[in-house]
Design goal:
By secondary structure, this protein is an alpha+beta fold. Helix content is 49%, strand content 15%. The strands form two sheets. It has a two-stranded antiparallel ribbon with strand order 1-2. Strands 3-4 form a two-stranded antiparallel sheet.
């Protein structure tokens, strides 16, 4: 009788552990398509887009410094906003406002060089409703002028560049 009871307890524990392991693997694989967890926070500061408000690029058509007062953590990084309204818009649809390629230099992602960690938040372009940041305004002008070639190249290169970033832990 004792063996049947202990065998049953062992089977119950094994069932719970197996179920928990399966759930952990399933949750780890359930990542949204573009919310890949790679967010450029630069070399210093640890804030996405150097503290600039991602919503302002779309609504104000300019780079606007955000405030820690209106911050929101997304994908493991703090994002700053110029107002509570902008923060709420971002919270409701972050993929609409977040920069492409985790905020890394879009021109570098499109090119064959390394990914530039430092970007100039003032150097941006909105192309087909998506925000692209670059190292400087010259890169932005070139990227935007050749976007029909640059964007597909960047899209094709991003998975490899993202893997390199993860390997080197440059976030």
């Amino acid at each position: 009788m004792v063996n049947k009871v202990s065998d049953r307890k062992y089977a119950d524990r094994l069932h719970h552990v197996t179920g928990a392991a399966f759930l952990a693997v399933a949750l780890a694989c359930a990542v949204p398509a573009r919310a890949d967890g790679t967010v450029n926070t630069g070399y210093f500061g640890g804030v996405a887009i150097d503290g600039y408000d991602p919503v302002a690029y779309f609504l104000d058509n300019r780079a606007v410094k955000g405030s820690e007062k209106y911050s929101y953590d997304w994908l493991g990084a703090p994002w700053y906003f110029a107002s509570d309204e902008h923060r709420e818009l971002f919270k409701n649809n972050p993929l609409k406002y977040a920069p492409q390629y985790g905020g890394y230099c879009a021109a570098e992602v499109a090119g064959s060089g390394s990914v530039t960690v430092n970007i100039d938040p003032e150097a941006f372009a909105i192309i087909d409703g998506k925000l692209y940041l670059t190292y400087d305004k010259v890169d932005t002008q070139d990227f935007a002028a050749h976007s029909s070639e640059a964007v597909p190249k960047a899209e094709a290169n991003w998975p490899k560049k993202q893997a390199e970033l993860a390997k080197n832990d440059f976030r």
